[in-house]
Design brief:
Number of helices: 16
Shape: globular
Order of helices and strands: HHHHHHEHEEEHHHHHHHHH
Distance between the termini: 61 Å
């Protein structure tokens, strides 16, 4: 029962830390609700600042409920033997083997998705709608969900079958072959996404000829960046939030602007935002993140390869493994359920690395475009997206992938003066 005790301790600690951090953020944002930070006082009104505070707090409160509910579901699957009952029922129905284990994993995904649906719905049609950001219809919401499930099945089921087959027949080093398959699969997705996957959900059209396109092409030439094209995406049919990104690998790279971004920003500001995104590519952030992701998947699969052979891993989490049958899917299901409890404590490290990359990308944008244009663009985006300007420092250090607005603006102002 040692692993049971360890799991329970980490579970309580992770749940407690999540709750404590969310409450800190709520209190800090609420305490600064009545005053716009001095550096933003000329560009953001008090009502806009208060809207951002209320929007942030509303999302955090929903997150607290979701965190508590997820904790109950996790305990239900593990220590209360929900996974054991589900596995036994499917075994009685289908016998033991890869098909039954695939059904087990698909059932968990389906149950988890159904249980999460009310939170997703409330976020979209409750919070996002209340603050003027939602443009999605219930019909589009359902259509997106159906497409997502179909796409997940089309891509995920063959991958799952390959991994489970390797677990059954590739010996003790099955995890190494599974890692190779996983790595190739993700590289293939990066190549397929811009041309085949993204168009299933959004419409893309070429950026029209004009001053903006001329300015962007000049930036790409200065940055020595070759892409397959410049595209505008109909992000406005789902949300009022704006963004820009590039996607794909090799010759499949595309630069994509949300139509909402182009509507809200001047050509110089759009150029500065894109220069920031290109900074991630030119400073090798994307390559580094991919390498870290592949390294982490290597470690996790190696750990799964070992722990799946240990009886205590199953028994201490409320599951009875088959002594003569096949437990590949059961091991994978348990691992996916419990590993986030332990992995949660590495979150500050990834957040720190991400913030460092954001500063570096801002520096690249200041060099290749305009720091002042990026500052004005960020202020507009903070304003339009109702992003809080006064986050709690501890919450930021733990979770935030981007530096707090005042620090980021101050850094860009310093770069603009050098």
């Amino acid at each position: 029962m040692l692993f049971t005790t360890t799991f329970v301790l980490f579970f309580i600690l992770s749940f407690g830390v999540r709750h404590w951090l969310a409450q800190r953020q709520i209190r800090h944002v609420a305490a600064h609700r009545e005053t716009v930070p001095a550096e933003f006082a000329q560009s953001i009104t008090l009502s806009e600042h208060q809207k951002a505070a209320d929007y942030t707090i509303a999302k955090l409160k929903l997150g607290l409920l979701e965190n508590a509910f997820s904790a109950v579901v996790l305990i239900g699957f593990t220590l209360l033997c929900g996974l054991e009952y589900l596995n036994q029922a499917l075994t009685d129905l289908m016998g033991n083997g890869i098909a039954q284990q695939m059904a087990l994993l698909c059932s968990i995904f389906l149950i988890s998705g159904i249980l999460d649906l009310p939170f997703t719905w409330h976020k979209q049609f409750g919070i996002e709608a209340a603050y003027g950001f939602n443009r999605m219809t219930p019909k589009l919401f359902v259509l997106d969900m159906v497409k997502g499930v179909a796409l997940g099945a089309a891509l995920g089921l063959p991958l799952l079958w390959v991994v489970l087959s390797l677990m059954a027949s590739a010996g003790g080093l099955w995890w190494l072959w599974a890692w190779v398959v996983w790595t190739v699969f993700n590289a293939l997705l990066l190549w397929l996404f811009p041309t085949f996957i993204a168009p299933l959900f959004n419409k893309f059209k070429a950026l029209e000829e004009g001053p903006l396109k001329t300015q962007i092409e000049g930036l790409l030439k200065r940055c020595d960046f070759a892409s397959q094209g410049l595209f505008v995406m109909d992000g406005s049919k789902r949300s009022a939030h704006g963004n820009a990104y590039f996607t794909g690998i090799g010759k499949a790279k595309r630069i994509v602007f949300f139509d909402t971004l182009i509507e809200k920003l001047s050509p110089g500001e759009v150029e500065a935002v894109l220069a920031h995104e290109l900074g991630h590519y030119k400073r090798n952030h994307i390559r580094k993140r991919l390498l870290v992701s592949f390294a982490m998947s290597f470690v996790m699969l190696a750990l799964l390869g070992w722990i799946s052979t240990q009886a205590w891993f199953y028994i201490d989490l409320g599951v009875t493994p088959s002594l003569e049958g096949y437990n590949g899917g059961l091991a994978l299901a348990l691992f996916m359920l419990v590993s986030p409890v332990f992995g949660f404590f590495f979150t500050p490290l990834s957040s720190l690395a991400s913030r460092k990359h954001e500063y570096e990308a801002d520096g690249f944008a200041a060099e290749k475009a305009s720091a002042s244009d990026l500052i004005s663009a960020l202020v507009k985006l903070y304003q339009d997206n109702a992003s809080t300007l006064t986050p709690d420092p501890v919450y930021t250090a733990f979770y935030s992938s981007h530096p707090p607005a005042p620090l980021r603006i101050a850094n860009l102002q310093r770069l603009n003066q050098t």
